[in-house]
Amino acid sequence: MSRPVPTTETRSTNKIRVLVAKLGLDGHDRGAKVVARILRDAGMEVIYTGLYKTPSQVVNAAIQEDVDVIGVSLLSGSHVPLFRELCKCLKQSNAEHIFVVAGGVIPEQDYDDLKECGVDVIIPQEARAELIVSTITAMVEARGRI
Amino acid sequence: MTGVALFNRAKRPAYIPSLELVPQVLAGSRLAVARMISRAEGNYAEASEALAEIYKHTGKAHIIGITGVPGAGKSTLVASLIKALSANGHKVGVVAVDPSSPFSGGAILGDRVRMNEVAEANQAFVRSMATRGHLGGLAPSTLQAVDILDAAGYSPIIIETVGVGQDEVEIVSAAHTVVVLSPPGLGDDIQAIKAGILEIADLHVVSKADKPEAAATVAAIKGMLALGKTLQSSNKFSSAWDAPVLAVSSVSGERMESLVATVDAHWKHLRDSGEATERERNNCRTRIFNMARHLFQQQFDEGPKNLEQQLQAVMKRESDPRTAANVLLGWDKER
Fold first, then answer.
1. According to the model, what pLDDT value does residue A6 have?
2. Is B102 on the interface with A (CB under 8 A)?
3. Band of residue A10 on the pLDDT scale cut at 50, 70, 90
4. What is the model's pLDDT at position B188?
5. CA-to-CA distance for B288 and B292, rounded, in angstroms?
6. Which residues does chain B have within 8 Å of residue A17's beta carbon, measured at their own beta carbons?
7. From the list A10, A37, A57, which residue is nearest B44 (CB)?
8. Distance from C-alpha of B151 to C-alpha of B211, rounded to nearest angstrom
9. Cα separation, B116 vs B84, whole angstroms
10. How far apart are CA B89 and CA B239, in angstroms?
11. What whole-number distance in Å separates Cα of residue B187 and Cα of residue B112?
């Protein structure tokens, strides 16, 4: 049986949906809001969670909103344990089809650890708006609609 | 400068046909419910059969509409309602609508910020939706999302409209109980006797009751309602339900229980008086009409074969717009 796909016409009404989240005790959300605005201006639908969320809250929100991507901005330094917990929650909830994008202040020495946790992309803090948009768009388009 | 670190994990889950998702939706699977809403929202042709199947399982839920101007406190009120309704043992569903950008088509959906904690603690299902260019206070597929939540066993289902102006009253043909939220300190009693948004309320709620101006707003709305009552003999839209005016405060938690009790009382009134059936009939009628318009619009945008021919005929004055429209609708006789 061939795999049914939405027609080209109906495809166009779909939008990339992104959950922009702040995890843990990190009260700085200026960057997250700027990124949310950049993605909005690129035509995406952005759901913002607000501050101080736990990984399980973020995963539950991501599932209900059926987002393509969870973007987490972390400046607190506790990114490795928080992303580990987030990716564990995603796995337990059968929601590994959702991409995890890490942003904020993340030293390169931690990249391998994050990759091992299940983070899909790390976008460094000096990234330009176009780079953020093109990275997310390319990733979701490569996966295709589900 | 470091570039993007892309780990390139292949994520290609199989596309599950919508009809196979239906049993999971009916069983209440959150993943299936969420996915189904996206497909309705994305207007997947493949999902229409499944949505038709889901519709057969709807009609059980009490649908509550919350509307009001931007910043009135709708999301905060919904959060309080989730808490109070869940405490009474209800499985609450929420569809919260926010505007899409008219320029980029993107949106920032922020209603969730105020609901996250309570939704999480009470197993409520909260879905944010962008209007995607639709005017009237709702999104094009809000009602399909409500159907899906209804079929999945959620009741009541709360629809939070976008922040409305004076005239976006679409919620009236979507909900059983319409709550109009007015913040204190906006306008005088002339605003209150104008036509539009205030007329559609089954229940008036004045938010931010902890502020001193709230009493004046309650008085203005009550005055408007009293005026309507004396004129009621000549008003065919009158019903046995007198819209109450409640002042609530999410800061102090004031009167939240009485709000829930009043919403319940209105639902009981609708069913006991037979008005529920009447409203259901009107709502279904509106939905059929809107769907017909949507389908025609879609067909028109695709440029049907005979569109060009009719277009030429109208431009050359061999035909006229009305006749051409009749032909495009497939109506052989003039209407």
1. 42
2. no
3. very low
4. 62
5. 6
6. 38
7. A10
8. 40
9. 15
10. 30
11. 29
Query: What count of other Cβ atoms lies within 10 Å of the Cβ of residue B212?
Result: 9
Which among B11, B37, B103 is the nearest to A66, CB-wise? B37
Closest CA to B42 of A11, A1, A56: A11
Q: Which of A45, A60, A123, A143 to mutate to test the interface with B (most CBs of B within 10 A)?
A: A45
Output the pLDDT for position A7.
37
Inform me whether the C-beta atom of residue B133 falls under 8 Å from chain A C-beta atoms: no
Cis ω before A6 (30° cut-off from 0): no
To the nearest whole Å, the CA of A106 is away from the closest chain B CA by: 11
Asked if B30 reaches chain A (Cβ–Cβ under 8 Å), the answer is: yes
- The label of the residue with tokens 């049914």 reads A4
- State whether residue B29 sits within 8 Å of chain A by CB: no
| pLDDT at residue A143 is higher than 90 | no
- B58-275 CATH choice from 3.40.50.720, 3.40.30.10, 3.30.420.40, 3.40.50.300: 3.40.50.300
Token digits for B187? Answer: 């306008």
CATH 3.40.50.300 residue ranges for chain B:
58-275
Nearest residue in chain A measured CA to CA from B140: A13
Q: Which residues of chain B have pLDDT under 70?
A: 1-2, 8-10, 12, 166-167, 187-196, 229-239, 253-254, 332-335
pLDDT at A5 (0 to 100): 45
Which pLDDT score is estimated for A14?
79
SS3 content of chain A, % helix, strand, coil (to 5): 45, 15, 40
